[in-house]
Design brief:
The structure holds two protein chains of two kinds.
Chain A: E1 4-12, E2 21-30, E3 35-40, H1 46-54, E4 62-70, E5 73-74, H2 80-86, E6 91-94, H3 98-101, H4 108-117, H5 124-137, H6 154-166, E7 172-176, H7 184-201, E8 204-209, H8 212-218, E9 221-226, E10 229-235, H9 236-241, H10 246-254, E11 272-283, E12 290-303, E13 308-312, H11 319-326, E14 334-339, E15 342-343, H12 349-352, E16 359-362, H13 376-386, H14 391-404, H15 421-433, E17 439-443, H16 451-468, E18 471-476, H17 479-485, E19 488-493, E20 496-502, H18 503-508, H19 513-521
Parallel strand pairs in A: 3-8, 3-9, 6-7, 7-8, 13-18, 13-19, 16-17, 17-18
Antiparallel strand pairs in A: 1-2, 1-4, 4-5, 9-10, 11-12, 11-14, 14-15, 19-20
Helix pairs in contact in A: 4-5, 5-6, 6-7, 7-19, 13-14, 13-15, 14-15, 15-16
Chain B: H1 2-7, H2 11-33, H3 65-101, H4 103-118, H5 121-132, H6 136-162, H7 166-173, H8 178-214, H9 225-231, H10 241-268
Classes of the chains: A alpha/beta, B mainly alpha.
Chain lengths: 528, 274
């Protein structure tokens, strides 16, 4: 008998939601000692399924049909109090954002011990002792029980969450996108840890993810969800190697392979030349002096027309600071940024303003990068207007520009909230292109997007780069994405360039250990 | 529109809006409703409400209280709205500049703001009005000068958080001028809290004006609710209506404005409601 058997689970959403059902007729089995993955894009109902097992559906969202048999008991029929006792003891759960899941004002040791004592009669001392040994098991031997969540790194916090979830030795661990907020090397460690613990403790794991690489590395069996339904499920090898449903095939095809696609360009005179760029952030205030953080340390690079240069690195590597210094959203402390001949690194804002049209940017967050109170038309003509172009002429061009990025001209009169994430990124790109720039800086433009949308936006960026002969600086944390679109890449760590070269060389024969570690950490490589 | 529906969904908001519109109508229509001005004497002093021809009785000098209350509404509303508009103007300007530029500009402007906030505001107001000679203008200017820090604080806070949003950075990258970024990108997004704070300030400005007039620091040539109460101090025990009726007018008006403010707050920040 499997540990969990979900039969015909239908979860309804409150009236007024964008669809009536969150999941429809979902059936799924989680075998004992199995790792099962549910994979799908945002809005597919994968998280709702996990929360239904935990009995943690938000108010107004209810399981209207079906059953969830857990060890022979239907969880949906349990009274709330009995369900509460099972949560934590029989089923542990970890979430995407460990910072939000941990209480910021209580030391981690006490958070774990309280969790244990909520279910078992035990003295504080005993519980803390158990917390200590759990943290040891998670590879956190050196971390103090008295540490607060903000003193830990993202990976350490997720380990604390796992320690807490496993403190009562549950039979099932539900992990809802546990590594999405983490760096790629940290992600690899956490996934390895989950796999090790699963084997040692002989528990079952339900892993929710959007990443087929993670599925390939982790899962015994997999269920693909779309619009609240399971479109395909089965053993991982079968589903990934021989997908039967068209949607599964589309999803797998959209996953970047992590193989270089573009050959390096012939050497030409560079359009942008960065030399010795340095940026420090000072900390502390009037009364305390702390050493400044060096975000960029003597960075030099060059970029030619028609070329895409990828800047890859983990969080805190300085890659976004580099983008913001090049485009002068930040003022660098030293070094130069030459656009043709002019050094814009230390130019005064008034002198810089006319040059700004030549160098434009696409931002990361599709939700905060467009002014929510302006129509798409007004957003697009803001740039030309600032540079003195006739408004009527600019409006006409805006319609053409929407066409170029694959949107209909009716979009001009609508507000940003009426569009999806991928469409908003297209609008953001159109806004940048309205000024006919020579250089485009893209700061993690696809990291907030679903994998199929990500593939479309990447293709659009590459097409636009070709058509307009743009020089593109592409910032990303994802090596696979960089491989897809960049001619050359530059690997950054702690504000320094660790390695640079043609994408082909760097991926085939990385010279630095750090690049090797980054490449090895790519989940599911090779995917098929 | 969804906003209007949300705004009108609460009964207290509807009540506040109805009362406020009624008072506005009375204030605007005062010269049409009454043939005499508020200072003309119509009969014996201290006649109770309901005496022939006197809906609200007469005051210590034998003037028609009903006329006084209607004309008083003009002054209260005028002072309330005018001083709030001035205070909001100063507050938005200084708050926007402080929040957008940050650094020493912010430090300087916030120290000035704190200077106004740490002085007992009513004492400062009395000194200001006495110094400028009591008049309608000095009352409005005085109230605006002691209340703008509230607006400045709110606006600064909004600007501090909004300026880090990517659409504001995008506007800088496009080469827009700071003034255009402040006016077209940030300010429209900061409007909801400004509107809410302002609607509440109208009510408190009416209260402040009443207190000033009660103390005799209002415009001596105009009759306001506060000065009516002040003038009837000596008759309070023999003729309750001379002070209670203008007092009620103040309470009802301020209450109505607060209800409107609450309604605006809920309608503009739908997520802030529990």
């Amino acid at each position: 008998m499997p540990l969990v058997s979900i039969q015909g689970l239908t979860v309804s959403l409150p009236p007024g939601a964008d669809r009536p059902l969150a999941t429809e007729d979902v059936s799924l089995e989680i075998g004992r000692k199995d790792i099962v993955c549910i994979v799908g894009e945002s809005g597919s109902g994968k998280s709702v399924t996990a929360h239904a097992i935990m009995g943690l559906l938000p108010r107004g969202v209810t399981a209207t049909r079906g059953s969830i048999q857990f060890d022979g008991v239907d969880l949906l029929q349990l009274p709330p109090d009995a369900m509460r006792r099972r949560r934590g003891r029989d089923i542990g759960m970890i979430f995407q954002d460990p910072m939000a899941a941990l209480n910021p004002v209580i030391p981690i040791g006490r958070q774990i011990s309280e969790h244990i004592r909520a279910h078992q009669a035990m003295s504080e001392g005993q519980a803390l002792k158990q917390a200590r040994s759990l943290l040891g098991e998670m590879g956190l031997k050196t971390v103090s029980l008295k540490a607060y969540p903000h003193q830990l790194s993202g990976g350490q916090r997720q380990r604390v969450m796992i320690a807490m979830a496993l403190s009562l030795s549950p039979k099932l661990l539900i992990a809802d996108e546990p590594t999405t907020a983490l760096d790629v090397t940290t992600q690899a460690q956490i996934l390895k840890l989950i796999k090790r613990l699963q084997a040692e403790r002989e528990m079952s794991v339900l892993l929710i993810t959007h990443d087929f690489g993670v599925v390939a590395d982790m899962a015994d069996s997999v269920a693909v969800m779309r619009h609240g339904q399971i479109v395909e499920s089965g053993a991982t090898r079968t589903v990934l190697g021989n997908p039967s449903h068209a949607y599964t095939r589309t999803l797998i095809a959209a996953v970047p392979r992590g193989e270089s696609r573009l050959p390096p360009l012939a050497e030409t005179r560079p359009l942008v030349q960065v030399k010795g760029l340095t940026k420090r952030f000072s900390r502390g205030g009037l009364f305390s002096r702390m050493p400044a953080i060096v975000a960029l340390d003597d960075i030099s690079l060059s970029l030619s027309r028609g070329e895409t240069l990828g800047v890859v690195g983990e969080s805190g590597s300085g890659k976004s600071t580099l983008a913001r210094c090049v485009i002068r959203l930040l003022d660098p402390d030293a070094g130069e940024v030459r656009l043709d001949e002019a050094d814009i690194a230390h130019m005064r804002e008034a002198a810089l303003r006319p040059l700004r049209r030549r160098i434009q940017m696409v931002f990361q967050d599709p939700f905060s990068s467009l002014n929510p109170r302006q129509t798409v038309g007004d957003i697009l003509i803001a740039g030309p207007k600032a540079h003195g172009e006739d408004v009527r002429q600019a409006r006409k061009r805006a319609a053409d520009m929407l066409d170029l990025v694959g949107l209909k001209p009716e979009a001009l009169h609508r507000l940003p909230h009426e569009f999806s994430g991928g469409q908003r990124q297209r609008i953001g790109l159109a806004r940048a292109l309205m000024l006919k720039p020579d250089v485009l800086i893209a700061d993690e433009p696809v990291s907030a997007l679903d994998v199929t949308v990500q593939a479309q936006v990447l293709k659009l960026l590459d097409d636009v780069r070709r058509q307009m002969n743009l020089a593109m600086l592409f910032i990303t944390h994802d090596m696979r994405v960089a491989a897809e679109i960049c001619h050359r890449v530059l690997v950054m760590r702690h504000g320094r360039i660790v390695e640079q070269g043609s994408t082909r060389e760097v991926f085939a024969a990385p010279s630095s250990d750090y690049t090797k570690a980054l490449l090895a950490a790519i989940p599911g490589r090779p995917v098929q | 529109m969804a906003f209007v529906r949300r705004f009108l969904s609460r009964p207290t908001t509807l009540f506040g809006l109805a009362v406020f519109l009624l008072i506005v109508a009375i204030a605007l229509g005062a010269p049409l409703l009454f043939s005499r001005g508020p200072f003309s004497i119509v009969g014996m002093p201290l006649l109770p409400p309901g005496a022939p021809g006197l809906l609200a009785g007469s005051d210590v000098l034998g003037r028609d209280m009903a006329v006084g209350l209607a004309y008083g509404a003009r002054i209260s509303l005028l002072v309330g709205i005018a001083s709030t508009v001035c205070a909001a103007g100063i507050g938005v300007l200084l708050g926007a500049v402080a929040g957008y530029y940050g650094g020493w500009v912010d430090d300087l402007l916030m120290r000035v703001t704190e200077f106004f906030q740490i002085i007992p505001s009513f004492v400062l107001l009395m000194v200001l009005v006495a110094f400028m000679q009591p008049s309608l203008t000095s009352t409005v200017i005085g109230i605006a000068l002691v209340t703008w820090p509230q607006v400045a604080r709110v606006v600064r806070g909004e600007f501090l958080s909004l300026k880090t949003r990517e659409f504001v950075q995008a506007a800088r990258v496009l080469g827009m001028r700071d003034s255009a970024i402040i006016a077209t990108q940030i300010l429209p997004n900061a409007l909801p809290p400004i509107v809410v704070v302002s609607s509440m300030m109208v009510g408190s400005a009416i209260l402040t004006e009443s207190a000033l007039s009660f103390l005799g620091l209002g415009d001596p040539n105009l009759l306001s609710w506060g000065s009516m109460i002040g003038g009837s101090r000596s008759a309070m025990w023999v003729a309750w209506w001379t002070s209670v009726l203008p007092g009620l007018c103040i309470v009802v008006t301020v209450l109505a404005l607060n209800f409107i403010g609450d309604g605006l707050n809920d309608a503009l920040n739908p997520r802030g409601r529990c």
